[in-house]
Amino acid sequence: MPFMIIKAVLLDLDDTLWPVAPVIRHAESRLHAWMQEHVPAVTALHTIDSLRERRQALVASDPRFSYDLWALRHTLLRQILIEHDEDPAKADQAMAVFAAARNQVSLYEDVRPALQTLAQKVRLGTVSNGFADLQAIGLAPHFEVSVAAHQFGCAKPDPRIFLAACDALGLVPQSVLYVGDDLLLDVEGAQQAGLRAGWMNRSGMPSADPRHQHILPDAEFKDLHDLTEWL
């Protein structure tokens, strides 16, 4: 790829700006507690794990569910409510409970100060497969552009979602760096769209996984301060 000055950085969200596993556990726990109170017949038969299994099985039923995780959860809730002769409209209330908890993230310590520094160097945006609400989280003012799979209509590693963010910035892909924690979805996906790609490797895990040997990030970072220094 010919050298071009980096004019913008696009960031992944989950496991790049905050750890996602505890967030999802908390959100699913809050949802299940709400269901125990409002639709106890459902939770008498379904645990958090069994609901997860049903959700995973549902993915294959509609191509939309591969990128719209909100619709996937909402559809399953409606199905289960109908199965138990409950009002399917309660799925909206349930999703509001889940979404509120989903946005209660604990940012990595470097995120807020580093975003302020990065904004002085480059334009910033996000591209995510999740449905976290940056406005609710309080990070939206840091980003000029935010593209979410469930709203856009496809998910990483599809090149279109990366290119849409570049188009929104008015920049050619070669002048944009994408940074994320997943070598396949983030690094390879961005590179195939013509962007440069950095691997956010907060845990210091080795990159020698045989499945990833063909993927060569343009850079590797341990946190956003590391990214700032690289720029």
Automatic annotation (TrEMBL):
UniProtKB keywords: Hydrolase, Magnesium
Asked whether the keyword Hydrolase is assigned, the reply is: yes
SUPFAM superfamilies per the UniProt record, alphabetical: HAD-like
Needed cofactors: Mg(2+)
Entry-linked InterPro entries: HAD-like_hydrolase (IPR051400), HAD-like_sf (IPR036412), HAD-SF_hydro_IA (IPR006439), HAD_sf (IPR023214)
Annotated GO MF terms? hydrolase activity
Keyword Magnesium assigned: yes
Q: What is this protein called?
A: HAD family hydrolase
Organism ancestry: Bacteria, Pseudomonadati, Pseudomonadota, Betaproteobacteria, Burkholderiales
